[in-house]
Amino acid sequence: MRSPEGAGRGDEVHASPFELPVWHELATHRAELASTSMGRLFEDDPRRGVKLSAEFDGVVLDYSKNVITDRTVDLLMRLARDRGLAAGIDAMFGGTRINTTEDRAVLRTPASESVLLDGVDVVRPVHEVLGRMSDLADAIRSGRWRGATGRSVRTVVNIGIGGSDLGPAMAYHALREFAHAEVEARFVSNVDGHDIDRVLGDLDPETTLFIVSSKTFSTIETLTNARTARRWLVDRLGDEAVGKHFVAVSTNAEQVGAFGINPANMFEFWDWVGGRYSLMSAIGLSLMIVIGPEGFREMLAGAHAIDEHFRTAAFEENLPVLLGLLGIWHRNFCGAQAFAVLPYDQRLALLPAYLQQLDMESNGKSVNRHGCPVGVDTAPVVWGAPGTNGQHAFFQMLHQGTTPVPCDFIGVLEPAHTHRVHHDLLMANLFAQTRALAFGDLDTPEPPPHRSFPGDRPSNTILLPSLTPYTLGQLIALYENKVFVQGWIWGVNSFDQWGVELGKKLATSIHEDLRSDAPPDFDSSTNALMLRYRHARRSGPVGQPSATTTGEI
Ligand code: F6P
Q1: Checking CA distances to 418, which of 91, 233, 286, 313 falls within 20 to 30 Å?
Q2: DSSP symbols for 90-101
Q3: Is the distance from the beta carbon of residue 216 to the nearest atom of ligand 1 less than 6 Å?
Q4: Which residues pair with 146 in a beta bridge?
Q5: What is the per-residue pLDDT for 14?
Q6: From atom 2 of ligand 1, which residue's Cα is the shortest distance away?
C-alpha cells in the first residue's frame, strides 16, 4: 500500500513546484547526468531492463530506456511527495471540488460503494443510467428497437465533438473484433459539411439511429450537425420519425428538450465528468451498442482496476505515477517540447488523437489553480501515429532530428488475427525502434555524419496482453491518471478548458459578419480574408467550386 507520506499536503501547496528544493535538486542532478549515456547505464547494470520495469494486472511498463538513475527515481518520488500528490489523489477520488474554476468535483469510473457529493450518493444514478443504456443497447442489438417504418436499427451515428467524439470513436476503432455483426457505428464531429455528407451519403434512414452527444448541448458544431441530420431524416421519413431515430446524451435536459428529443430518450451524465474524460459515462453509448453492455462493463472494470491501483499502490510501483513523473523529467528537466504516442497496433490508430486532447486540453495551461503563473513548462505537444506507418513518415526526425522527443511505444502481445508473420514483424519493429533510439547504431563504429545515430533518445514501452474492452479500459485510465499526476505536480487545474472559449466567441461574431454586407471591423488580415470569402460565397453556392477574385479587397 502507498505510504501516507505527503498526505494532507495537497491543495494548500499553492506555489510553483519551482519553489520546492527538490525541483532544484532535480535540475542539478540532470546537469550531472548530461554526459551519461544510456549505453553506459545498461552496461553498468545488466539487470536494468528488469529493474526499471513495473507490472500491474497484465500491463507492463518498461521505463529503463530513459537517461535516469536510481537517484533520478528517488528525487522524482520525493517531488511527488513534497507536492502532496497523495492528498491530490485522495481529493479527486473523495469528491473534493478540485476543478476550482468551474467549482466542480471530478469523479471517476463507477465504484460499487457509494460516493457522496454534497451529501448525495452519486453512484446509484450512474448505475441507473448504465442500466438504461444497456436496455437500449440490448433492444438495438436484438432488433427489438424498431425505427419509424418498423425496421431494426443497423447503424448508430454518434454526433459529437472533442470528448464527446474522440473517446467513442477511438474505442470503436480499437474494439471492432467485439462488434455486433450487423450493427455498425459512424461518427460525425466536424462542422465541415463534408464530414456529415460522408456519414450520411449511403445511409438508410429507416435503419439509422442518431445519438446526439454533447455534455453542454450548446456546442455549435454538434448542434449544426444534429440539425442537418434531423432535416435529412425528416425529409425522408417525416417529422414523427424523430422520436424513433434520435436519442441524446447530455447533462442538459432542458436544451435536449428544446432540440426536440424526448427526455425519455436522453441518457444523463453529470458535471463532475469532464468532457475529455467522458468515454466511460453515457458518452460511450454508441460504443456500448456496438460491443454490447457486457463488453462496455468490462471496459469500465479495466479502468476501475487501474484507478484502484493508482489510488493505493506505492508510488514506486504505481504505473500512472511513474509515467507522469517520467513525463515531468523529460519536459521540465530535459527540455522536451513534445511527446510522441506510438501504438504498434493499427486498432489503436486513433489513440494519439484521443491522448492529444486528454493531455493538451487538460494541462496546456499557464496559470495554476490559484490564478498565478505556473512558473514551469506544462503540457508538451502530443502527437503520434501507429507503427510501423510512423516509421516511414516522421521517425527520421525522432532518430536524427535536433529535438529529442520522448516516446511511448505501446505493443499488444497477442493479436486478434492469425497472421503470425505480420505480428512477429510488427513487434520486432517496435523493439528495434526503442533500441535504435536508445543506443544508436552499435554495429557501425565510425559512420559518416549523415549515417550516425546519436542514441540516448528516451522511450517507455507499454505492453498489453491483448486488446480487449478490459485492457483498453486499463490503457485509458493509465493515461488519464498520468495526466492527473502531471497536472497536480504543475499545480494547474487539469479539468477546465477556458483556452477554447475565445476562439468560439470570435467565431460567433465573425460568422454573423460573414453573412452581412457591412464592412468587417477586425484587423486588416482578418478583414481581407473575410472579404475574399464573402466574394466567393456570392459567386457560387457553398460546395460548388467558385472563382475568387481580389477585386473587392
Ligand atoms: O473543446 C472544448 C470542449 O468543451 C471539450 O472539452 C469537449 O470535449 C468538447 O468541447 C465538446 O463539448 P460538449 O460535449 O459539451 O459538446
Answers
A1: 286
A2: HHHHHT---BGG
A3: yes
A4: 152
A5: 57
A6: 500
- Classify residue 204 as exposed, middle or buried by CB count within 10 Å of its CB (0-12, 13-18, 19+): exposed
Helix (H) or strand (E) holding 318: none
Q: At 125, which amino acid appears? A: P
DSSP code, position 228 = H
Between the two ends of the chain, the Cα-to-Cα distance in Å is 68
Identified catalytic residue from 504, 511, 512, 552: 504
Backbone angles phi, psi at 75, to 5 degrees: -65, -40
Q: In angstroms, what is the span from residue 190 Cα to ligand 1's centroid? A: 12
217: CA distance to ligand 1 center in Å?
9
Q: Which of 164, 259, 356, 495 to mutate to test the pocket of ligand 1 (most atoms within 8 A of CB)?
A: 164
Q: Which three cell numbers stand for residue 359?
A: 493531455
Residue 244 is among the residues annotated as catalytic for this protein: no
From 104, 216, 357, give the residue whose CB has the most ligand 1 atoms within 8 Å, as the site to mutate. 216
**What is the torsional sign of CA 355, 357, 359, 362?**
negative
Q: Comparing C-alpha atoms, which of 270, 215, 213, 276 is closest to residue 480?
A: 276
Q: For this structure, is 361 an active site residue?
A: yes
Cell numbers for 464, please give them.
498489453
Cα separation, 176 vs 182, in Å, equals 12
**What are the cell numbers at 424?**
512477429
What size, in residues, is the chain? Answer: 553
Q: Is 504 a catalytic residue?
A: yes
- Whose cell is 448525495? That residue is 120
User: Ligand 1: which of 500, 502, 505 to mutate, most ligand atoms within 8 Å of CB?
Assistant: 500
Scanning the structure block, which residue is given the C-alpha cell 485510465? Answer: 477
Helix or strand run (H / E) with residue 484:
helix 469-490
Question: How far does the centroid of ligand 1 lie from the alpha carbon of residue 199, in Å?
Answer: 21
With a cut of 70, list the residues of the chain below it in pLDDT: 1-14, 109-112, 541-553
pLDDT tens column, 381-397: 999 999 999 999 999 99
Backbone torsions φ then ψ of 371, nearest 5 degrees = 80, 10
3 state SS of 320: helix
CA atoms within 13 A on the CB side of 5: 13
Query: CA 216, CA 256: separation in Å to the nearest integer?
Result: 10
418: burial class by Cβ within 10 Å (0-12, 13-18, 19+)?
exposed
- The owner of cell 455528407 is 197
**494 Cβ inside 6 Å of ligand 1:** no
Residue nearest to atom 9 of ligand 1 (CA): 162
Burial 34-52 (b: 16+ CB within 10 A, else e): eeebbeebbeeeeebeeeb
Distance CA 26, CA 24 (A): 5
Looking at residue 85, its pLDDT comes to 98
Strand partners, 459: 407
Which residue type, as a one-letter code, is found at position 373?
Answer: P
- Cβ neighbours around 70 below 10 Å, total: 10
Strand partners, 186: 157
DSSP3 helix / strand / coil % (the chain, rounded to 5) = 50, 10, 35
DSSP-derived 3-state class of residue 473: helix
